């Protein structure tokens, strides 16, 4: 075993990983927002979140093409803010991804239970999780091919849903009831679930080191990916909310099949939608396993985590990182608390977004001559992304204070770990970082 990743990804495979990581958010999870606000309030939340992700991904493309590294955000922060900044960014990424995965696995369990009631949802979730951990151990080339296939099927499912539901949209469904439900606090409470439409889209950066030509391929994959997701998110919401009562949507673990069942009755179409929905959930489960395993690999290689996690097998897969990180994720599957897990994952994501945009500004000042094959419109676009990310941070704290307290406690423990582990390694807080070619830099 060694600690080198293989360069095999093409732009279309990177697009498949990016869209696949996120696409489960179209099939379920976002609908819990309607417990907090009205469909109109959620539209406002979606618009704010969409503006953020569009500006963020253009900014992120600059970072990932200038520094194509498996660590992604932890490498950008380390280079701009020092080793502690790199650890903070890497831990935030792990919080985002490791909590997103059990939420998705639980949704897979719910969809399987919908189709086969005899199979308990949690059991189905754990089995599905284990299967895709094994597939990831076969290497990035095999993993990327599986990801691309299931992503295409999942997109086809959304197109089917929009085609079947769009003729039945009634604006009265969107405008019904109290359109000011929850007021501004309701919109704040809905933001984590609007984020769920796009959460983990930045995970493609963790595959940058495995691209055949990172400086050319990453902008193509990123920009096409975010464009695809914006169209799918807007279409999915309007068809679901325009055809179904908000109270039905908010209480369903499978909102798209429920919407079709309300239009056409129980039968073939809703069952087909449930079956295809599994592919969307599987695409995200599989893609996010790729993301957090590469983050664990990179943090190990940089000296933040035990060296075992940066070993790869003959297929170039960081097998120890895949398996150990996934076992942690499986523990949270057993809680069954999908909505709470989504909030925790969103907190990690927002912390990551803030430190990534700060890193971009510092690197522009600190390393003006750094080769940047793709340049964002600076400083306007990253400034918009950073400002909205701070709004998200405030919204999360205000609307989910008790949950966020636990997350802050986890960050405090992680910081203690960082300084203790650094001292044990005999380097205080200055940990040796390995370059991409294995040399000390």
From TrEMBL:
GO cellular component: plasma membrane
Transmembrane regions listed in the UniProt entry: 12-34, 40-63, 84-112, 118-139, 146-167, 179-201, 222-243, 263-292, 317-334, 340-364, 376-398, 404-421
Pfam annotation, one family: AA_permease_2
UniProt keyword annotations, A-Z: Cell membrane, Membrane, Transmembrane, Transmembrane helix
Location of this chain's protein in the cell: Cell membrane
Example of a GO MF term: transmembrane transporter activity
Topology class, membrane: Multi-pass membrane protein
Recorded superkingdom: Bacteria
Protein name per Swiss-Prot or TrEMBL: Ethanolamine permease
Protein's organism: Clostridium chromiireducens
